[in-house]
Specification:
With 339 residues, the chain is an alpha/beta fold. It has a domain of 221 residues: Rossmann fold, CATH 3.40.50. 30% of the residues lie in helices and 23% in strands. The strands form 2 sheets. An 8-stranded mixed beta sheet has the order 6-7-8-3-9-10-12-11, sandwiched between helices. Strand 7, helix 7 and strand 8 form a beta-alpha-beta unit. Helix 4 crosses helix 5, helix 5 crosses helix 6 and helix 6 runs parallel beside helix 7. The two termini are 38 Å apart. Keywords: ATP-binding, Cell membrane, Ion transport, Membrane, Nucleotide-binding, Translocase, Transport. It catalyses: Ni(2+)(out) + ATP + H2O = Ni(2+)(in) + ADP + phosphate + H(+). It is a peripheral membrane protein. This is Nickel import system ATP-binding protein NikD.
Length: 339
């Protein structure tokens, strides 16, 4: 097993609002290992993007962050802002979703990449421009297009520019937040393959934040499933997809076109008014009486597979169908056997 590159320990992120405290992340403990891609999966609004920004301390001033975020033995939450700026981009890169909103519309794309080298490496204008051109070529864009402005690029090409920006300084970790959002299927696969190839080539690590479980399953090593601000399942990607231990993960899988295309019933709770007990129990088809009363802990099941569910704690594994045929399952594989 490779050593942790980034360790998140009992992270809580709370926003002050006029309606009271909003718990965007609660009790998050995760690690990203050297050379690993971890997929963070969940519906819109569950707190995925908040976690990505918290790692780099890019949240607004009304956010309160508690816990530890340790990158190569350095607790990022304890660093003064001046030192934290040196980590952003150089040690940990980030790709924000919606590149049209992130890129400066009045600066050429080449200049926006070049500024990264001028700030972090202190190189001259000419050398910075050359480095920017090399990065554009690396992501499949002719370096001459560095003179073009963001509005002159298609959605897929803008995502390539964002890849160039995120990887410009060859960081040890890349946080990619919904890098394929809004793209057609073919372009989505191209961008995912591009990012994956560059990350693997540099032996870097990546946190892939996405709601697209099918896409993540093709590129990540492990999957962490988030629901209503907390992690509900973590495990090796192949194991989570073939043998999910949490009902929410199973429902997400059934929502895929090739797995039944059934939408997850009900609505996710607002982070201002979380339900008592298990946060998924109002939508869960397998809930027990205890689920509405007690909040379950994230516990190990087997082989580094963790889940936050009373069924997995109480029951023994019962295979109800071949592991490769999830759509034929009538219940998760952990439903306890009858006495």
């Amino acid at each position: 097993m490779s050593s942790p590159l980034l360790s998140i320990e009992y992270l809580n992120v709370t926003f002050k609002t006029s309606k009271g405290p909003l718990k965007a992340n609660e009790g998050i403990s995760l690690e990203i290992r050297e050379g690993e891609t971890l997929g963070l999966i969940g519906e819109t609004g569950c707190g995925k993007t908040t976690l990505g920004k918290a790692i780099l301390r890019l949240l607004s001033g009304n956010a309160k962050i508690e816990g530890k975020i340790v990158y190569r033995d350095t607790d990022l939450l304890s660093l003064p802002e001046k030192k934290m700026r040196l980590f952003r981009g150089k040690e940990i890169g980030i790709m924000f979703q919606n590149p049209s909103a992130c890129l400066n519309p009045v600066l050429s794309t080449g200049r926006q990449i070049a500024e990264i080298y001028r700030y972090h490496e202190g190189v001259g204008k000419k050398e910075a421009e050359e480095k920017a051109g090399e990065m554009l070529e690396l992501v499949g864009i002719n370096s001459l297009r560095g003179h073009d402005y963001p509005h002159q690029f298609s959605g897929g090409m803008l995502q390539r520019v964002m890849v160039a920006i995120g990887l410009a300084l060859r960081p040890g970790l890349l946080i990619a937040d919904e890098p394929t959002k809004g793209l057609d299927t073919d372009t989505k696969v191209q961008i995912a393959e591009l990012i994956d190839g560059l990350i693997r080539r540099e032996n870097a690590s990546m946190l892939l934040i996405t709601h697209d479980l099918e896409l993540a399953g093709s590129f990540v090593d492990r999957i962490a499933v988030m629901y209503a601000g907390e992690i509900v399942e973590v495990g090796k990607a192949a194991e989570v997809i073939s043998n999910p231990k949490h009902p929410y993960t199973l429902d997400l899988l059934h929502s895929l076109p090739g797995k039944g295309f059934r939408t997850v019933s009900g609505q996710a709770p607002g982070l201002l008014s979380l339900p008592q007990g298990c946060r998924y129990h109002p939508r869960c088809s397998f809930r027990l009486e205890v689920c509405s009363q007690v909040h379950p802990a994230l516990r190990g099941f087997c082989d580094e597979h963790l889940t936050r569910c009373f069924l997995s704690e109480m029951g023994r594994r019962k295979e109800t169908a071949p592991r490769s045929s999830l759509t034929e399952q009538s219940a998760p594989s952990y439903v306890e056997e009858e006495a």
